[in-house]
Specification:
Length: 300
């Protein structure tokens, strides 16, 4: 009886139809159309209705500027000043075969090195004189919109590394004359270096509208306005890792989801339509808080 059962089971198993995988579609990344399509599958999705979430976490370091004529300082290994984590949620609409509109918003929350959200910061930690406790302004940038074309890349076997190097310099939204203790300079300056890592085999898979991605991000920038460091010399260095989140907003870490639901629930979804005008940054957001008298003068 057992042999008869096994024989029947085997016959049923063999009678099931075989579904053949669709062959991969080779990409020529030197071709503008193929390059843009591959970049979109990496950064977003070919499905205009799909919301794509990138998550990141990392640390912020303080880099002091020393008097070039003073005695040399002893070298040291700096401990992180703060931890941070955040996400970007986006949709992508096709403009042409080589251009796609990104519609997104993003959040970053600052934490101490024990992983707890900080709402008050002692700027003694960046050597402000006289020091004080200052209210923290977490990042809530909306919109963060761009037109995506293709991307520059490097191939290492099946791995494709896409890089985006951004050197920014423009008039600061917080000029010193009006916002002395919040402004580092009349010119906003920063450097942001992104690397996105994806697999060619995924990008060439016609069954995938969006592919897994690992992200690295380094930023060099001025002291944040809420740190109230004025024109103190020095800068902040950010270093983060991240990835494209499977499952969208629901796939984010629980603490980040909880913070967002309590403080900015609209960030659970990407914008529904394009908003024309400059993207929101921490500097522009801080200016709006100050103008509307929404930034507290002291920590709670």
């Amino acid at each position: 009886m057992l042999l008869y059962f096994l024989a029947c089971f085997s016959a049923e198993e063999q009678s099931e139809p075989v579904v053949e995988a669709r062959p991969n579609e080779p990409l020529n990344l030197e071709d503008p159309v193929d390059n843009a399509k591959a970049f979109l599958k990496m950064r977003g999705s070919l499905d205009e209705n799909e919301e794509v979430v990138f998550y990141w976490h990392g640390y912020i370091y303080n880099q002091e500027s020393y008097d070039p004529f003073a005695d040399p300082e002893t070298s040291y290994y700096s401990s992180p000043l703060l931890a941070f984590e955040g996400f970007n949620i986006a949709r992508f609409e096709k403009i042409s075969d080589t251009e796609y509109q990104m519609l997104s918003r993003e959040i970053t929350i600052y934490k101490n090195l024990f992983g707890h959200v900080v709402n008050c910061f002692d700027n003694f930690n960046i050597n402000v004189d006289p020091p004080q406790y200052v209210p923290v302004v977490h990042v809530q940038n909306d919109p963060v919109n761009f037109v995506l074309g293709g991307g520059t890349y490097k191939e290492m076997g099946d791995l494709i590394a896409w890089d985006m190097d951004m050197f920014l310099s423009y008039p600061s939204p917080l000029p010193i004359e009006e916002y002395e203790k919040y402004s580092a300079s009349n010119t906003y300056q920063s450097v942001e270096l992104f690397d996105f890592y994806s697999q060619r085999s995924d990008l060439e898979d016609p069954s995938m509208n969006s592919v897994p991605v690992h992200l690295t991000w380094v930023r060099q920038g001025q002291y944040l306005p809420w740190m109230q460091a004025g024109q103190k010399s020095g800068q902040l260095i950010y270093h983060a890792q991240g990835y494209k989140v499977e499952g969208g907003f629901d796939g984010l870490p629980e603490d980040l989801k909880s913070w967002t639901e309590a403080n900015a629930p609209e960030y659970k979804h990407a914008p529904e339509s394009a908003i024309y005008g400059p993207n929101v940054t921490s500097w522009r957001y801080m200016k709006s808080l100050l103008e509307n008298q929404e930034y507290p003068e002291t920590c709670p």
